[in-house]
């Protein structure tokens, strides 16, 4: 679901941003869905925690302000480029 292509010229964090955006826009990741934790997603995809954190922060920066202490990440709808709600 959150696959990346290691040999791509596109940075891994950018690939995650694009992939999560696609999943939300296509409805495969419905509003209110809880995303895996940063550590879980990093392990699942085989990337660093920093890469996943960077992707989540960029997605959140487009939609809403982000506190540095993120507890959970949820897909949201009706936000400008409306991707995430951080609680």
Assembly state: single chain
Number of domains: 1
Strand content: 5-15%
| Main sheet: strand order | 1-2
Helix fraction?
40-55%
Q: Which structural class fits the helix and strand makeup?
A: mainly alpha
Average pLDDT for all residues: 75
Give me the number of helical elements: 3
Give the overall shape, derived from the CA principal axes.
globular
Structure commentary:
The chain is mainly α and 87 residues long. It has a single domain, classed as Arc Repressor Mutant, subunit A (Orthogonal Bundle), CATH 1.10.10.10. Helix content is 44%, strand content 7%. It has three helices and two strands, in the order αααββ. The chain has a two-stranded antiparallel ribbon with strand order 1-2. Helix 2 crosses helix 3. The longest helix is centred in the first third of the chain and has 15 residues. The C terminus is likely disordered.
Core attributes:
single chain; 87 residues; mainly alpha; Arc Repressor Mutant, subunit A; two-stranded antiparallel ribbon; 3 helices; disordered C terminus
């Amino acid at each position: 679901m959150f696959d990346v292509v290691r040999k791509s010229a596109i940075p891994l964090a950018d690939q995650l941003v694009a992939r999560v955006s696609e999943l939300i826009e296509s409805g495969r990741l419905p509003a209110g869905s809880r995303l895996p934790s940063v550590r879980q997603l990093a392990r699942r995809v085989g990337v660093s925690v920093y890469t996943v954190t960077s992707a989540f922060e960029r997605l959140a920066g487009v939609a809403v302000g982000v506190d540095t202490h993120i507890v959970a990440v949820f897909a949201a709808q009706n936000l400008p480029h409306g991707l995430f709600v951080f609680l």
